[in-house]
Structures are given as structure tokens and as C-alpha cells.
Amino acid sequence: MKRIFITETVLRDAQQSLIATRMPFEDFEGILDRIDSAGYYSIECWGGATFDSCLRYLNEDPWERLRKIKSKVKNTKLQMLLRGQNLLGYKHYSDDVVRMFVRKSIENGMDIIRIFDALNDLRNIEVAVDETIKAGGHAQGTIVYTISPIHSLEMYVKIGKDLESMGVHSICIKDMAGIMSPKEAYDLVKALKENVKVPVFLHTHSTTGLGILTYLKAVEAGVDGIDTAISSFSGGTSQPPTETLDYALKQMGFDTGLNSKVLKEINDFFKPVKDKFIKNGLLNPFVLSTDTDALIYQIPGGMLSNLIAQLKQQNALDKLDEVLMEVPRVREDLGYPPLVTPMSQIVGTQAAANVLSGERYKVILKEVKAYIRGEYGRPPGKINPDLVKKVLGSEKPIEGRFADTLEPIFEKTKEKVKDFAKTDEDVLSYILFPQVAEEFLRNRGKKKEPRERKIEYTIEGIS
């Protein structure tokens, strides 16, 4: 009986997709022991936007949050999402910072690090993969999945083979917008299983309604593991429900390792947590519905919930449809980058700027300019030449690995912030989010009212 590994996402991607990563530690502390005993392969609980949100909105030290989770989870592997050379921020960091961050993540309790680059430029994950392996962690390389005129099955298989050659312990297909169809999943998983020897995992969302079907066909094709969310925090822009997949897979003759009675306890615990977020307005019913338009605009769940929150605060929620339809146009202009952080934020926020300013590219984000210069890596396709000329003029874009142009900064920064950053972890928090981290570290331990975000023509601070 084949084992299908199940990763639970309620502590990270599920709540990031539905409530913009606003779940404080106290909301799930009481159920960690039961999650640990449910039989999951891993628990995704850190990375992505959790780090930013802990500092910016929840008045929590993200490193302490990780240590607290580890102290209560003794049997199940902890998993995180890392944006390669971007770490958990929105720009590239020097190699010394990447290595230190990876090492400290593992020292503080992380087991599996899922590492991706938004452009599938593997030059931007090689340092993080190397350091994960050296530090004794499980390095999971990632294929960022998208659909465009330039992306193909052959391209994805080549990425998988290149990842295996890099030394990763497993490969994840990351379908952040829920746009992968059952047939596409079957074909890609089958092709990868025929070409690589390491385990293959699949991550998708329920956004378009395809999620459960996609997982089942992936299982038929030989996938080794999938990501699911406990049912009260599943569906919509989150992952397909854990209990439903557990039930179906067991009937199909697969072993999930999960205890269905414990899953019910976990779900019952999170039901009132969900109700709380519905009542305070953070959980918008829009993100719980099936939205097949996502097959067109391809915005992942976390970005969609953030866009809604931002437009709502600007009293511009009526512009949401215009923004969503502008997204694929901006994406085409930028050479069809996959819409995953930070590219989803860059493309989505530029689309919002185009709509709200009343003129396309009247305002060009500094991140868009950096992307066109080559600071995020090699674009998958050709960038609109008119936009390139508007941004660069006669300047030539960077063709090499951008991180090679960056000087080491960790030790210099450590000396600079020694009056309020007491540990290496504090220094890393500051490097990733300077203003927010400094405010947090200087006022650590003081009660703080939650902050609300406001949309600006920048992606800084978007979780």
C-alpha cells in the first residue's frame, strides 16, 4: 500500500490565503499537541508571509514563534517556504545573509525548507539549497507552475532534472493560483517520476475548484505527497480539505498515515477561530468561494486576499474586477513571470497602480524597475520593449546572477544595530524588514495595538 504524505497548511498557507496571515500564536497553541499526533508528514508553519506579519501586525517575534511551535511538536517535521535569494522579503539579499538565515532557521527548529525562485531561475536558489543541506535540513526544490505561451511540459521536466542535479532531497510542484488541471497534473507528475528519482510533491489551491480533482490525478500518476488544509480553513483560495482527501485516498487504497478522529478534534478547535475572523471582517467571504476567473488572472490566494484588503481600505473595492483584468496584461508586458511572491505582489500592485492612477504605467513601481534591470533574475520571456525603454533608456539589464553584485552585509549590520538587536536572529529580522523590525525590537514586550495596512504604490509590507 503506497503512502501518500500529507502536509498540513493551516498554520501557514491556509491562513495566509484566507486571512492575510493574521492568526496569532495564541489562537493555535492549544491544538499543537493534537496536530503533532495526527500522523502528518509535515506541518507547514513558517515562512511565506508569517515572518512579516508577526513583526508588522501581531507583535510577535517570528523566531520565538518557531521555537514555541517546535517545543510542542515533537514527532512531526516542521516545514517552511523560502523565496530563495529573496528569503522572506521582496528583494535579493547577499549570500552571507541567505546562509545565515537558513542556518538559523534550522537551528531554531525547522526541518524541511521548500525553496523556490519566482522566475524559476535556479541560480537564485542554489545558495539556499546548499546551506540547507550543509546545516542538516531537508532541501525541497520547487518548480513554480504557471500557464503561458512560453511555459511547457518539457521546460518543467528540465527544471526538475536540474533541481535533482543540484542535490535537493525532494521536488515540489508549486501551483500557487490553483490553475493546474487534473490532466496537467497527471502529465507533469508522470513525466517527473519518469525522469527524477527524488520524491515529488504537489501544492495547489482550491481557488478555481480544480484542487481535489488535480490531487487525485496526481496521486494516480505517482505523486508522493500533497498539501492540504484542515477543513474549517480549507477551500476558496486556501488548499483542499485534509479530511476529504484523507477519506478519498483511503478508499482508493492509499495509506495517508492520518488519524481521522484526531483530524476531527483539530477541525473542531479551528471552527471558532474561523468564526472570530469572519466576525471581525478579516475573513472576507469572497476568498471562500470558487472563482474560475482565476484561470485568467492567475493571482494566488494570499495576494488575492491582500488585494481585497488594500482596495477596501482605499474605498476602491469596486475597482477589483478592473485590477484583476489588468493583471494578465501587466504579466504579459513583463515576460510572463509566474505569479508567486514576490512577482505576484509586483504584478498585482502594478496592475492596481495602473487602474487607480487612470493611466497604464503613469506610476511605475521601483520593484518593476528593478525587475526590468534584472535584479530579480532572468525573465521567463521577452519584456515589452517600450516598457524596457521607458525604464532603462540606454542602460543594459543585468545578465548575470544579481546576488553576485551584492557585498556581504551581515556583520556590518550586526555592528550597526547592536543597541537593539541582541541576537543573530534579531539582526536577520532587521535586514529583512528594517523599519518594522527596529520598531518591534525597540519595543519588545510592550503591548501594541494591531496595525492595519494601507495600499501604496509599493510592495513593501505586503504580506
UniProtKB/TrEMBL annotation:
Q: What sequence ranges are listed for the domain Pyruvate carboxyltransferase?
A: 4-264
This protein's species is Anaerocellum danielii
Please tell me whether the keyword Lyase is annotated for this protein: yes
Q: Which domain of life is it from?
A: Bacteria
PROSITE patterns hit by this protein: PYR_CT (PS50991)
What PANTHER family does the entry give?
Answer: PYRUVATE CARBOXYLASE, PYRUVATE CARBOXYLASE, MITOCHONDRIAL
Gene3D superfamilies (alphabetical): Aldolase class I
Which SUPFAM superfamilies has this protein been placed in? Aldolase, post-HMGL domain-like
Keyword Lyase set for record: yes
Q: What keyword terms does UniProt attach to this protein?
A: Lyase
This entry's Enzyme Commission designation comes to 4.1.1.112
Q: Which GO terms describe its molecular function?
A: oxaloacetate decarboxylase activity
What name appears for this protein in its UniProt entry? Answer: Oxaloacetate decarboxylase subunit alpha
InterPro entries with a match to the protein in the record: Aldolase_TIM (IPR013785), Carboxylase_cons_dom (IPR003379), PCB-like (IPR055268), PYR_CT (IPR000891)
